[in-house]
Amino acid sequence: MKIVSDASPLINLSRIGELGLLRKLYEELIIPEAVWNEVVVDGAGQAGAAEVNAAKWIKTKKVCNKNLVQALQQNLDAGESEAIALSLEINTVLLLMDERIGREVARHFGLHCTGLIGILIEAKHKRHIISIKPYLDSLRQIAGFRINNDLYLRVLLDENEA
User: What DSSP string runs through the chain?
Assistant: First the structure.
């Protein structure tokens, strides 16, 4: 199963010490070079850099369609653009991306996307975690991940945690 990830899920799960949750769910992730650079090179010394660099289950792949990447960069950053282009090139099952505009663009291309909240819901349904609330709270408090209150409460209600 081919799963491509943008930087946000990698960085934010690393900030709360839970990057391994992605390995439990997906076994292997593929990231484009721009995401590698954002997390490991430009992010050296920051959360996620050492963890992603050491993770043998995260593979880096070069994007071939540079024209598509350049077009996508009109509205998206390099990592998001390359993640979408790579997902299209290798026909991924799932793209992990949190940014709303990036996900809208990816869906326009017919890609299936999920973000951190979707990852946590899947982890709970597959019984890798017992409860989503502690993870959401850690993401908000430790990682500084923005989740509006209505969404936070709706997720907890939907998952019978409110």
Answer: --EEE-HHHHHHHHHTT-THHHHHHHS-EEEEHHHHIIIIITTTTSTTHHHHHH-TTEEEE--S-HHHHHHHTTTS-HHHHHHHHHHHHHT-SEEE---HHHHHHHHHTT--EE-HHHHHHHHHHTTS-S-SHHHHHHHHHTS-----HHHHHHHHHHTT--
As assigned by CATH, the class of the 3-117 domain is alpha beta
- Band (162; pLDDT cuts 50, 70, 90): confident
Residue 155, both tokens: 């997720």
Over the stretch 82-126, which tens digit does the pLDDT of each residue have?
999 999 999 999 999 999 999 999 999 999 999 999 999 999 999
Nearest 10 degrees: Cα torsion 127, 129, 133, 138? -160
Distance CA 25, CA 66 (A): 30
- For 70-91, what is each residue's pLDDT tens digit? 999 999 999 999 999 999 999 9
Query: pTM for this one?
Result: 0.94
